[in-house]
Design goal:
The chain has 390 residues and is an alpha/beta fold. Strand 8, helix 5 and strand 9 form a beta-alpha-beta unit. The strands form three sheets. A seven-stranded parallel β-sheet has the order 3-2-1-5-7-8-9, sandwiched between helices. The protein has a six-stranded parallel β-sheet with strand order 12-11-10-13-14-15, sandwiched between helices. The chain is built from twelve helices and 15 strands. The two termini are 27 Å apart. The radius of gyration is 21 Å and the shape is globular. The longest helix is centred in the middle third of the chain and has 21 residues, at 136-156. The chain has two domains: 8-189 and 367-379, Rossmann fold, CATH 3.40.50.2000; 192-364, Rossmann fold (3-Layer(aba) Sandwich).
Length: 390
């Protein structure tokens, strides 16, 4: 394990973040504690490198409180208070290490890094967005992401981790010539709250509402979902969960103009405990997104025994026992979504099926399993390994 008396070094680059609500930060919070613990047990010298809001630095310190003093934490501020300048500086140089440099949040510097460079690329939505860029600025930014990713994958990155089988296939198709010999899937873990034991199972058949997730991003597909809900004839209430505070009033205005306004409730500001409780008490979750990096709401719902209406492309093949809990429908067809809503509100699921699905998702998406899969990347530098759950 050791080279003489010298410890192996690893830098975990968390990326630059603003809030705890983003999916990337949820991923980091879940995997970081078990990953650091495993690295320490294997004798690594660890640097955790982050950037952005100081509240997030405090959050990292809290998450790793049990191993305080056993790792090194570095935190980069926003230069002159500008996040954009910070992002640019992150892309240029983040220091050098004689060991492994792992970019865990889609980003990696052009210069520096480690002797072995690993990039967790959760998705390709920035260089290849679902919707056409709405402005010249967005179009130029998309072109930049494509060019920079081509350079990194061609010349800088030794191993690539992605979070979904679909993203793995897309990377293989779009970047056949790449430096990395290792390109695999490590499913991102759920947060501990969603992995808590459900005993007894909640009676979802008595629930009186459905849950949907809304964002300003067109890929969340809210207009079609709203039209489908209006046309479904269901008497259930739809709770619309809004993650972005600045669009709450915009969403409320859209809902106010809907003929189903009396059956729609706009919800904002839920913490993770409240969100989990909201999901597990619902009849079903509606998540017909056009594209996702992983699709956390699908698996958070299944982890709480709640069926999901979603897009076929978002499903993973490693969860066959959960198929009975999922209604896959085309996200591009309002008629298909209407039929899907009608189907899922009438779906009868036995306790056995629900429990099998819960157990499958809990085992598949545990933080410990994810950390162990990442460790295989660190230990097998030059081997082509697909770290999918079998």
């Amino acid at each position: 394990m050791d080279q003489g008396n010298k410890k192996r070094q690893i830098t975990l680059w968390l990326g630059r973040h603003r809030t705890e609500g983003a999916g990337l930060w949820v991923y980091l919070e879940s995997v970081l504690p078990p990953l650091v613990d495993l690295l320490l047990r294997e004798g690594y010298e660890i640097t955790v490198l982050g950037a952005g809001a100081l509240s997030l630095r405090a959050r990292v310190e809290h998450l790793l409180e049990a191993v305080a003093g056993k790792y090194h934490l570095e935190w980069r501020r926003d230069p002159f208070g500008s996040r954009y300048l910070g992002v640019l500086s992150d892309l240029v140089y983040l220091g050098r290490t004689d060991g492994i440099f792992h970019g865990m949040s889609n980003t990696f510097p052009f210069i520096g890094g480690g002797k072995r460079n690993i990039l967790t690329l959760h998705d390709l939505l920035q260089p290849f967005p679902v919707a056409r860029p709405p402005s010249l600025y967005r179009s130029l930014r998309t072109s930049y992401y494509r060019l920079s990713l081509w350079y990194l994958l061609r010349f800088r990155i030794d191993a690539i981790v992605t979070g979904h089988e679909r993203s793995q296939r897309e990377l293989q198709a779009r970047y056949p010539k790449r430096r990395a010999t290792q390109l695999g899937v490590v499913f991102p873990p759920l947060t501990p709250r969603f992995l808590e034991k459900l005993d007894p199972l909640p009676e979802s058949v008595e629930s009186e509402y459905l849950v949907a997730f809304v964002s300003s991003d067109p890929r969340k597909n809210f207009p079609r979902l709203l039209a489908a809900f209006e046309g479904s004839g269901t008497e259930f209430v739809l709770k619309v969960i809004v993650g972005e505070g600045h669009i709450v009033e915009e969403i409320r205005q859209v809902v106010a103009n809907s003929p189903a306004v009396d059956r729609i409730e706009v919800v904002h500001g839920l913490d993770r405990e409240e969100l989990c409780r909201c999901i597990e008490r619902s009849r079903a979750v509606l998540f017909p997104s056009l594209a996702e990096g992983f699709g956390y709401p699908i698996y958070e719902s299944l982890a709480r025994g709640v069926p999901v209406l979603t897009s076929p492309d978002l499903l993973i093949s490693a969860a066959p026992r959960s198929e009975a809990m999922v209604i896959p429908r085309s996200p591009y067809s309002v008629e298909a979504l209407i039929e899907g809503i009608q189907c899922i509100t009438e779906l009868q699921i036995s306790e056995t099926v629900r429990r099998e699905s819960i157990e499958e998702i809990h085992a598949l998406l545990s933080p410990q399993r994810c950390a162990e899969a990442l460790m295989s990347y660190y230990e097998t530098a030059d081997t082509t390994v697909t770290c999918c759950a079998k």
